[in-house]
Design goal:
Shape: elongated
Number of strands: 0
Structural class: mainly alpha
Order of helices and strands: HHH
Number of domains: 1
Helix content: 55-70%
Distance between the termini: 26 Å
Length: about 90
Amino acid sequence: MSLNLQNDGIAAVKELRSHPAFAALRAVLAREANSKANAAIDAPHELQASACGYARALRDLYVALESAVQGVPQNKVTKPGAVEKA
């Protein structure tokens, strides 16, 4: 599943992409998505589902924003915490 920002959302991201505060927001989203994913893995079994859902929501938001910023499909965006292939 992916988050669809729609045309007006993508247009807004394109206007914001050069703003330093927007770059800071994207960096924080990447860090938090990665951190919450690791926390979900380490969570007790009974808490994993909700922890995973929260981590997935942050990741989906990050991926949707990065997709719009980079102008590439979401499946081409490197996920937070992933190592880019050379």
